[in-house]
Each structure stands twice: as structure tokens, then as C-alpha cells.
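Contributing new records

If you add data, match the layout below exactly. Sequence lines come first and carry their own label; structure lines follow with theirs. Keep one chain per record. Anything else will be rejected by the validation script.
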Amino acid sequence: RTCSRRLLGRSRCTRRCARWGWPTGHCLGSATCRSSWGTATASCPSVIPSRRCSITGIVASFPKAFSTTSRCAGFLAEAFRNFLALLGWSIGEDREIFTLEEMAAAFDVTRVNPNPARFDPKKAEAINGVWLRRLPTDELARRMVPFLQSAGVLPPSPSADELKVLRAAAPLVQERMSVLEEAIDMLGFLFTDDNVLSPDSDALTAIQAPEARAAVAATRDALAELPDWTADSIEAALRSALVEGLGLKPKHAFGPVRLAVTGRRVSPPLFESLALLGRERTLARLDTALALAR
């Protein structure tokens, strides 16, 4: 718990931390940075005790507003290293995304910014989202597994069928995710039982509206005899039944169906979600929604 005198004197470190608006304390020094992130930094102004994320194993020190296990658990290590490097250094040419190897090759001490940096969680999430979209979909699916397991969405030993569904679903959410933990809400409906609506939920209240219930009933009828269970055929059948048949606008036509099947107002693309869920489970959820909405 002493400052690295080679980097910053104790009193200077305390003054800097106070000026940044963080609690005063001691700089953890370059050795901690090297062991945690795989790189040494010119100075490490962290003043919050280190925390190890229970899922990723990443060791880091964050401002208190950002320092919770669930938040750090959604970040890729390579993305967070990228973000931390930008707090006090620039690779130049208005470039923000780079690997550790690219940073090492381009590092120039003259680009180190002597001014205090501002820790911006939203920017960290944006950079993490870019790195998530860079991952191959199978790798993205693999990295989502521990988070789905921690939330009880997947069992400790997922079956081959569950992993197959997850790999198929990964491309549907890859463009929508900022952190890995978002997979819990986005994909949880694929791995839960067929009762996704609770009697006191806002989703059920929305489905009880006459227009919404009619849309769910028409969806049930349109999908029951659908010969080809694919996203394209599902979309064609629902547009014919709801938009053309009932004269509903797409927002009012498909919103109740999304609620009935996923229990959420926001989900991966609807038609692809129904295709992944399967005919039997989709019809079972529509039946449950109609029964509860009476």
C-alpha cells in the first residue's frame, strides 16, 4: 500500500487523485498494472482496492461508480485494456480501437497526455461493443456461456442442443450487445420454460388489450398450420395475418407477439427468435399468453 516512488511521490499521488474527484489514497504502481493487464503503464492512479471478477478473472481497480462484479463481468479483457490505454495516451490518427500488440508497436511517450483523464463508463461500453462485434460468432457464444450459467439460464453442463441454439442465436444479438452480461436478458427466453409471463407482469397487462390479444390469437392460427418453419416463412405468415388481415401497423402487430413469446418488449429479431424457439414451444407460449390474458 505504498506508492511507487519511482513513479509518483505519495503526496503527489494523493493530490492527483483528489483533483480527479476520486477518494484519496495510494497509487498501485506499474507492477500491479503489469500483472493485471499484461502491460506496464507510465502511472497507475487507481485508488480503489483491486477486485477480481468472479467470471472473467480480470483483476482491476475502478472508480466506485463502476466497481461492481456484474459490470466488470461483461467486459472483454482485450477491450478494457484498449479503453484504459486511451485514458492517458493516443495512438494517433483519430484511432480508438487497437490490440495490445499494435499499441506496443506504436507507443510513443510524446503521445502520453499529462492532463487528468476522465473515466467514462459509456465509452468503455462502446469500445467493448466494437470488440464484441469483432469476435467470431462461435467464440462469442463460448464467452457468453459463463454469464448465462451464473444467472441460472444455462445449467453447469449445457447439453449439445443448448449450445447449438446458443451458437445460432449469437449472430442475432452480436450487433446489439455492449457487454456480455446483456446476453442474460436477450437470450434467456430461449432456455427457460414455456411460461414466460407472470400474472402480475406489465407484459401480460399489455397483451390483455383487445387489439393485442387479437394479434396474439391471429398469430397462433397463422403459425399452427405453417408447413415450413423458417424465419422467412414465419415473417410472411405473420405479415399476411396481422398487417394485411387485421390492418395493424407492424409495431402494434408484432409487439404483442414478442411479449407473448419472450416476455420482453426488446428481444432479438422476432422471426428469427421464433424459428430458433421451434414450433411446439412457440405455440405453447402463445396458448399460455391467451389463457392468461382472458
